[in-house]
Specification:
With 348 residues, the protein is mainly α. It is built from 13 helices and five strands. The protein binds adenosine-5'-diphosphate and tryptophan.
């Protein structure tokens, strides 16, 4: 008899800050959809995190629904996964505060996101500094087992694990140094990361990490014309058409690999090495596989965006399910700290 598969709870968030791009898709959305097929899945739209940078209320509202539609169009079934908007479960802010009170400033000052904002002279509001604490609260409030994220979020996840330990040591009777202690249902659960190694960092059209903030991205739901324009703008070297080229140093090939199976990859690599094959040809091959992959999802996305009331209803149902998990966790945390138990009515 084969042993029954262990079902674990996977949880992840995505910020509603503009159009989702290929980096989001391969780094987070696709692994999330794959995990949801086998495991209990919790996914949310991180609108509170987005507020560290977004100052446009209408954009935040629209992009929040846009992310919900994106996740559904990419294959998340809201009947099978818990899909909600972060701010609809405000208890996360309470846990965030409780975690803040056991988290040293040194840890937060070491965060890449904070250092990056500082080095680039961006606005350093308190939300930027406390971002990893809210992210830890997102994860720990739901007793998540695994968190699918891109490699760039690994440090935040490590910090969430550290904060769980600080809290467990401060209030839950854990001895310092016993980080990998088996979870006893009482403490905060330390989650593991799931990082897609093959697609760990998706390059943008300039070869840097693809990111909304670098304006080097290819949007998942760009129309065919915009997509073609973006792909044609991918930076390549100036090797002349007739000479052989190295696929392994080429941004176009790196992106092509995300969509193509092993045979397609080998065949395109051969054409690079043979010479007489230009980057323009490679870009058209990329356009073809990307369009085949995203066109059906784009259609579904447009249908969903045409009915915002239905999207809102899906998010409200998700928030109710998420709160039902969050409230008992928060109660056990409150009790451990000495805060008063909540009147039962408030648990509803
Ligand atoms: P951005 O950098 O464009 O602002 P986010 O920070 O909103 O993207 O990222 C949302 C999710 O997508 C995270 O899980 C992140 O790790 C993943 N992700 C973002 N960009 C990339 C990339 N270039 N490669 C792989 N994963 C990425
Ligand atoms: N910080 C993540 C990002 O920029 C988004 C996020 C917020 C998140 N809370 C989370 C991801 C909890 C995983 C788990 O991509």
């Amino acid at each position: 008899m084969t042993p029954a598969k262990v079902r674990f709870r996977s949880l992840s968030g995505i910020k509603p800050t503009g159009q989702p791009h290929w980096g989001n898709y391969f780094g987070m959305i696709r692994p999330a959809v794959q995990l949801a097929a086998e495991h209990e899945s919790f996914y949310f739209i991180a609108d509170l995190h987005a507020l560290t940078t977004v100052r446009d209320a209408a954009a935040l509202t629209k992009d929040s629904l846009g992310i919900a539609a994106t996740l559904i169009a990419c294959g998340l079934n809201p009947d099978h996964v818990v899909l909600w908007r972060q701010s609809d479960v405000p208890e996360v802010l309470e846990l965030s505060w409780l975690l803040s009170c056991v988290t040293g400033m040194g840890l937060l000052e070491r965060a890449h996101s904070y250092k990056d904002a500082k080095n680039k002279g961006k606005e350093l509001n308190h939300g930027v500094m406390t971002y990893p604490v809210l992210m830890a609260a997102d994860i720990l409030l739901y007793d998540a087992d695994v968190v699918p994220v891109g490699k760039d979020q690994m440090q935040h996840l490590e910090m969430a694990r550290d904060m769980a330990t600080y809290f467990n040591v401060a209030y839950m009777g854990q001895t310092a140094g016993q980080e990998e202690l088996a979870w006893d249902g009482r403490m905060l659960k330390r989650p593991a990361a799931i990082v897609q190694e093959r697609t760990a960092i998706v390059p943008g059209i300039d070869g840097q990490k693809m990111s909304k903030s670098y304006d080097n991205y290819l949007a998942i739901f760009a129309d065919a014309k915009t997509l073609k324009k973006g792909i044609m703008a991918i930076k390549t070297d100036s090797t002349p058409l007739e000479l052989p080229k190295d696929p392994d140093t080429c941004n176009v090939f790196a992106l092509y690999k995300l969509f193509a199976d092993a045979d397609q990859q080998a065949s395109l690599a051969d054409r690079y090495r043979a010479g007489g094959f230009g980057y323009g040809h490679a870009k058209l091959a990329l356009l073809e596989v990307a369009e085949a992959h995203f066109a059906p999802m784009r259609q579904r996305y447009q249908e969903l965006m045409a009915d915002p009331a239905q999207l809102e209803q899906i998010l409200q149902q998700g928030a109710a399910k998420a709160r039902a998990v969050a409230l008992p966790v928060l109660e056990r945390v409150r009790r451990a700290t000495g805060l008063p138990a909540r009147p039962v009515g408030r648990l509803a």
